[in-house]
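Collaborator request log, item 7. Partner lab (contact: R.S.) asked for a structural prediction of Plastocyanin-like domain-containing protein to inform their binding assays.
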Amino acid sequence: VAPTSFTRLCEAREVLAINGQLPGPTLYVQRGDNLFVNVHNHAPYPITIH
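Returned to partner:
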């Protein structure tokens, strides 16, 4: 997670993105799978992802 520049309708803003993507990447799992996600917060403040 890190701040990145995002342009929409010719206006640039700084937003938080995951792997440089907004929205973040889709995670595909099956029922019963174990999923471990390591998140490295490079934002200037604490965040929560859900």
